[in-house]
Amino acid sequence: MSEIINQFESLLNLWSENGEHLTPRLSREILKIALELVKTGSLDKVERNLLRLYLEKTSCPVFLKNLSYPEENRQWAESCFAIIQNLEYKLANLFEDRVKKNPENTLFLDLADNPPRRWSYKEVDRYLKLLAGAFYLTAAPDQPRVAIYSENHLDTACCDLACLFYDILVSPLNPNFSLENLEYIFSLLQFNLVITDTPERLRRLEKLKEKTGWKFETLTIFRPEMGEARATLLGELVRRVDLNQAEAVLKRRRRPLTEVATVMFTSGSTGQPKGVSFSEYHLVSKRFARAAALPQVGEDEVLLAFLPLYHTFGRY
């Protein structure tokens, strides 16, 4: 088995050092060895960095188009699923690999600014850590449980990703939910942090507190006017935390890959909203399933999408 592992490492390194060596024959040989490692239960004997290199390198179109579609692409996806489970490879790991590869590339373009502001992978990485650290410190000693009751904004998209990356249960809620719908959902998930974006929604959340007696911290992406409900400006909360403090808070036991990470609800137009739960395994594995299904999509192509952002960001 050590001979197969050595061959696996040599072939991946050969390709990493010189992409011109990636022929259809080499692609199929790499896949063949990966499938053998999965079949024999030998993944534990392979260095973690090598398995992560396999996930990163083989998920690109130049590799996937060398395989026979759809059978070999399906086999490749199955090998990735096995490695994801073996490594407990999570969304934060996936994003970490993207940051290392493209630290200065643009991830977000904030059209709310004039001129539009570009956010690089490196800048977003730092912001997500600050957000997650602030959520943990605000909710302490309890575990944060976050609801996003807002329209789509860059800040709320980053809040969503910060929760997913750093093991905080999060639920993006329909911004048009009524007080009754909110009461039903909050009774199920027991949020202690809620992020919102308008005075009207802030007032609705205050009515929810008055009606139920529930205590949760409300964070806003706008500055509340005098006399409005008590809330904390999200930007001010983040400015209270430095990066070292946030990273120290985030060093803890991680959530299992198959534990619920997010709950998304239907609109409630035909009755009470219905929740659908996703684990991080659902979200990470979808990225590789999509690559197997669409091997022709190039790395330089741009994808425009609405939230939920984590359904789409992984490949690009």
Walk me through this protein's architecture:
This protein has 316 residues and is an alpha/beta fold. The chain is built from 13 helices and nine strands. The protein has helices spanning 2-17, 24-39, 48-58, 61-64, 71-87, 91-101, 121-139, 154-165, 179-189, 199-212, 234-239, 243-249, 280-293, and strands spanning 106-110, 117-120, 145-149, 169-173, 193-196, 217-220, 232-233, 260-265, 275-279. It has a five-stranded parallel sheet, with helices on both faces. Strand 5 (193-196), helix 10 (199-212) and strand 6 form a beta-alpha-beta unit. The longest helix has 19 residues, at 121-139. The two termini are 35 Å apart.
Contiguous low-pLDDT stretches (5 residues minimum) are 307-316
Biggest sheet details: 5 strands, parallel
Helix and strand composition category: alpha/beta
Question: Within the largest sheet, what's the order of strands?
Answer: 4-3-5-6-7
How many strands in all? 9
Task: Write the H/E string, N to C.
Answer: HHHHHHEEHEHEHEHEEHHEEH
State the end-to-end CA separation. 35 Å
Summarize the structure.
This protein is of the alpha/beta class.
Secondary structure layout:
Layout: H1 2-17, H2 24-39, H3 48-58, H4 61-64, H5 71-87, H6 91-101, E1 106-110, E2 117-120, H7 121-139, E3 145-149, H8 154-165, E4 169-173, H9 179-189, E5 193-196, H10 199-212, E6 217-220, E7 232-233, H11 234-239, H12 243-249, E8 260-265, E9 275-279, H13 280-293
Parallel strand pairs: 3-4, 3-5, 5-6, 6-7
Antiparallel strand pairs: 1-2, 8-9
Helix pairs in contact: 1-2, 2-5, 3-5, 5-13, 7-8, 7-12
